[in-house]
Give the backbone structure.
Amino acid sequence: MNTLHFRYAVEIEKTRSITQAAENLYMAQPNLSKAIKELEASLEITIFRRTSKGVIPTEQGVKFLSYAKQILMQIDNMKAIAVPEKSEKHRIRISVPRTGYISKAFSDYLQECDSSDDMEIYFCETNSMRTIENVRENSYNFGVVRFNSRHEKYFMDYLSEKNLESQLIWEYQVVALMSSENDEVVNENLTYSELSSVCTEIIQGDDSVPYVSGASEKLFADNRSGNKKTRRICMFDRGSAFDFLLTVPKSFMLDSPIPESICEKYGLIQKKCEFPDNCFKDLLIYPVDRKLSEGEIMLINKLYEVRNEIAFKSEI
């Protein structure tokens, strides 16, 4: 059994495409397909199946991939023994939600790093479920997950199941971000129901909740006006979302409060947006019993500093 084939399978799971996985691995697609068939034959299982949404693991495949990732992690750790020891101060892999205050904290952290130190940092903006996977399966040092308080029990149970610790970073009410050109178009006292009925909403299209399919969408659907049309654009990139806010007339996006410096940079404003379930939490997550490095603690402290800078200012 060739453990290199394990890496091939993990890459296919990540991309959900044999074509894209082959491109990422710098190999021909037929060779990748052949390698996976050989792996399946040696294990006597079917790892993947093709669907309209791409190539996804079978039930047996999910179990195999979980073990494969653990084996690959151990192989990488063994290889690291032969590598000259380097400072771990700024060797960090983090997975976080797509939000302004975290990117500001990360930027502040980088500015304070000693330029003479070694540095290798992975900064992944993604949804909460993928962040949990990154920390649990993909060797990320820690992550930040975001959820509505209505779904807290599901997330806490899931984190416990994955043997992950959690620590509250921020409990807040989301605000409506929009172009400053909309300042006179939208009333001061907004409700989400009113705003979503007159403006185009830009949303993260991949939010999900453990154990409950469609829970995130239902949360917002319950708070929209049922008898009015809604316009929504599903996004997966924060930079593009900001571009859309500036170019799509009367558009908005819900987010945690963000630093004024980001608003000024992109020409945005943030307004209160009331709805009954407007209580969200951002949690720091990391493996149980894991000791955080000096660099990780430094970055986490920056998260709290930027949070405090926003939270302790006068109300928006």
Summary: Residues 24 and 101 are 31 Å apart (CA to CA). The first strand starts at residue 48 and ends at 51.
